[in-house]
Amino acid sequence: MLKGKNILITGSSSGIGLATARLAKEYGANVILHGKTENEELKALVQELNCEYIFCDVADKIAVDSEVQKILEKVKRIDILVNSAGIAPMQEFLKSTDELWLDVFKTNVLGTTHFCQAVIPQMQKNKYGRIINISSIKGYPTMAGNGAYSASKASILSITSSLAKEFAPDIAVNAVAPGYTDTPMSLTRTSSKAMEKAKTSLVGRVGQPEEIAEVILFLASDKASFITGQTILVDGGYSISGK
User: Fold this and answer.
1) For the chain, N or C: smaller number of CB within 10 Å?
2) Residue 186 has pLDDT above 80, yes or no
3) What domains sit in the chain, N to C, each tagged with a CATH number?
């Protein structure tokens, strides 16, 4: 499905990014991993997938530009960008600090922006590109919670539509908004009570990272050639379960 395509996946050391990287490799893509630091988990995954990698803080525009340029010198082009890097610190709204809000927006919003700014120019030259941003069910007003995180993921919805309009028709830009998913981030920021409530989705369970990855890579493929500017909600029907 993705044979010969070069795909860069941010935040691919764990969770949805990791699942997407492994599945992309199965589908024939040339995977480029990304992590915030050059850690052992990232190195092990590089060996497993026999692929290239970069590491930088997505909030640091200069570092992002530098790392993307270095990898482009090796692989010549990036066909697909998946913006999966993100953080979700938990803090009550009235106790939340400016520092927390800024950290969340620097990673979740500016991080996505920085990688798009670094990759889009060469996609324009090649007259081809696929960008998939990761939002969240929490980005929708009726499902919001955890103020800073929800606000950042709502921003991704708008950024996705804006980029799709600006860079059409050669570059398709879409987003995936996962519901409750069995990832390390979900387990650390979601209470056991909330996880039990998540099982009231229409399919009766939380999602698996591989299920989210399948939707991401569908949007990354030419099978989704008539889809752009859209956010696909992948939540097992939780948002409409009425429970």
Assistant:
1) C
2) no
3) 6-240 (3.40.50.720)
